[in-house]
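Before relying on records like the one below, remember that each one covers exactly one chain. Contacts with other chains, cofactors or solvent are not represented anywhere in the record.
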Amino acid sequence: MSTQVVHQVASWVLSYPHDDVIEALPQLAAALREQRPTRAVRELLEVIEQLAATDPEELRHLYVDTFDLTRRHALHLSYWTEGDTRRRGEVLAAFKQVYRDSGQVVRLGGELPDHLPVVLEFAAVVDPEAGAALLQRYRASLELLRIELEDDASPWAGAVRAVCATLPGESPRTRTEAMALAGPVQPTETVGLEPFDPRLLPLAEGARR
């Protein structure tokens, strides 16, 4: 149960900090304190403490700067492995198929189906087994996002660390180790982008902002 709570709380704190998210922070913290004090639970409690201590408008600006104005912190899991390629459309369709196979309505809220908060919500309340499998399948994306957020000392780094801590095995220490989790690169046709390796596209020098 604690894993589902971690995924649910992480889904909230990694979402845009609308008023409902900010108002829910005390309840999210209370739910975590009812769980065993695992590493993931401790990480999320620290994140909530940081977010709650930040002025809401400042927090919203910081969120936009962190996740919307740079590719280096992409919350879309398949972006890290596919970039903006034609193959990515197939991958997004595969995410939707997983949701359909659950037999329940999965609300995307205007996001793409590989958006991390959407995947976490699915894993928390719809199909924990299938959701955990998706997160494990895109472990490389999660770990690379974690590394980038840590490098920038982002308050949201702990939320991604918490998610990674719910998955089997230790997190990789370097980008190279994280890249290896994605397996061999498959040639793909890029759409409207420079022809650098589509895997880890946000980390390519030309893609940094």
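The CA atoms of residues 9 and 28 lie 6 Å apart.
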